[in-house]
């Protein structure tokens, strides 16, 4: 599983990358919205962790453009703002989950695992062929 972290606070981004790699994920970091968007649009990532307050292009606009380009990988928003409106906008733009800073790394990892399980379930369901009461 390959994860893209888009976060301008380099200390947080680097700590996240370190924890993700330690937990057997592949992970890259981008430190602004523009390079984050460019990387996200390559389509090689299975999950994106996206900060909202970013230089150049803010996280919500990055998210909007990712979805406009039909990149459908799960996105977890990371935000210092505990504002309902940001969460609502983010979810409406197609985020799958959000976590408010400061957060516990264990909670973020649990949310990633939860999204992974949902992805795996979707894949499994698509591979089931049903005919009458017989499932293959
Ligand atoms: Ca930020």
Report on this model:
- The protein has 136 residues and is α/β, with parallel strands linked by helices.
- 46% of the residues lie in helices and 21% in strands.
- Helix 4 links the parallel strand 4 and strand 5.
- The longest helix has 22 residues, at 105-126.
- The mean pLDDT is 91.
- Calcium ion is lined by residues 8-9, 51, 53-54.
- Calcium ion (CA) binds at residues 8-9, 51, 53-54.
Indicate the topology:
Layout: E1 2-6, H1 10-22, E2 26-30, H2 33-40, E3 47-51, H3 59-68, E4 75-79, H4 84-92, E5 97-100, H5 105-126, E6 130-131, E7 134-135
Parallel strand pairs: 1-2, 1-3, 3-4, 4-5
Antiparallel strand pairs: 6-7
Helix pairs in contact: 2-3
The protein binds calcium ion (CA).
Low-confidence stretches: none
Number of helices in the DSSP assignment:
5
- What's the average pLDDT? 91
Helix content: 40-55%
Compressed to H and E, one letter per element, the order equals: EHEHEHEHEHEE
Largest sheet: 5 strands, parallel
């Amino acid at each position: 599983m390959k994860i893209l972290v888009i976060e301008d606070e380099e200390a947080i981004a680097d700590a996240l990358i370190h924890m993700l790699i330690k937990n057997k994920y592949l992970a890259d970091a981008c430190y602004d919205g523009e390079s984050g968007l460019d990387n996200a649009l390559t389509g090689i990532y299975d999950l994106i962790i996206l900060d909202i307050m970013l230089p150049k292009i803010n996280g919500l606009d990055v998210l909007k453009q990712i979805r406009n380009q039909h990149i459908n990988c799960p996105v977890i928003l990371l935000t210092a703002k505990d504002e309902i409106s940001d969460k609502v906008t983010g979810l409406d733009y197609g985020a799958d989950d959000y976590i408010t800073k400061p957060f516990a790394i264990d909670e973020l990892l649990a949310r990633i695992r939860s999204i992974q399980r949902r992805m795996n379930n979707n894949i499994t369901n698509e591979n089931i062929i049903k005919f009458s009461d017989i499932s293959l």
